[in-house]
Automatic annotation (TrEMBL):
Keywords assigned: G-protein coupled receptor, Membrane, Olfaction, Receptor, Sensory transduction, Transducer, Transmembrane, Transmembrane helix
G-protein coupled receptors family 1 profile domain boundaries: 43-294
Record's subcellular location: Membrane
Transmembrane regions: 27-50, 62-80, 146-165, 185-202, 208-228, 240-262, 274-294
Membrane-related topology note: Multi-pass membrane protein
Superkingdom classification of source: Eukaryota
Protein name stated in the entry: Olfactory receptor family 52 subfamily B member 2
GO cellular component: plasma membrane
Reported function: Odorant receptor.
GO MF, one annotated term: olfactory receptor activity
Keyword tRNA-binding: no
UniProt keyword Transmembrane, yes or no: yes
Amino acid sequence: MSHSNVTIFHPAGFVLLGIPGLEAYQIWLSIPLCLIYITAALGNSILIVVIVMEHNLHEPMYFFLSVLAIMDILLSTTTVPKALPIFWLHAHNIAVDACVTQVFFVHMMFVGESAILLAMAFDPFVAICAPLRYTAVLPWPVVGRIALAIITGSFCIIFPVIFLLKRLPFCRTNIVRHSYCEHIGVARLACADITVNIWYGFSVPIVMVILDVILIAVSYSLILRAVFCLPSQEAQHKALSTCGSHLCVILMFYVPSFFTLLTHHFGRNIPQHVHILLANLYVLVPPMLNPIVYGVKTKQICEGVAHHQDLVTSLCCNSGTREKTK
């Protein structure tokens, strides 16, 4: 096709197909996706409220955990509320700006959550390897600057993606074979060279995340070395249980994300609907499991939740007693 015969246009919106190949089952698939999303949003909201209300949880680790919970809510809310109308109401259209916004927040939350997990690995490293210097190394002003640096850094890393997408001309189709907008998936619809999109949109975030993984691995190797040098088994068990929930959250974040990434780029024989299902589960399952893991494995959070349950029960009982008295 000659260049003169190519009609270039800038679409007013895109069409999200949902899960191509599973159109007949989308209504049934949407039910567990909706339940998982509700569980993730509710669980992370409860976690944030408990951390804010309980004074014994006002520590750097739980502050970072609350930031992680906020990012989990944003990650799942960016994608699922738009995907569900596709499955239920066949509302496939999405405006260009809304599509670019989805791309931005999905990628920003991915980079941001990885950085938060690194910060959460640094906290037990200081607490176990240098306990006497903990308050000097991690005072609240430093913790606030770390959180601000993570948010600002994630924003600056992903922000150029907006311009990389907005500059592209389209000449073939505006149909996105996915349930939400993803950077490379949208860029591949363009009739221009997308080498910069591929290199920046794929390489830069991945390099940052791999660097986070390396630093987390170094941190926990030093933590484990320090733990096994502790004099008593009870102290070792307490230190390991403190780190156990964080290690579970790290594995739940990185294993599905890297598996999804590798199958997307190298799994040529894997059906497309499998890729899309994995992508949807990735933005839902870790946010759902994170508050459950921390709630079950962390004693302070369990006590905080139980305290608020007892408080609510007491208020309800007192209210009922007052009604009967009247």
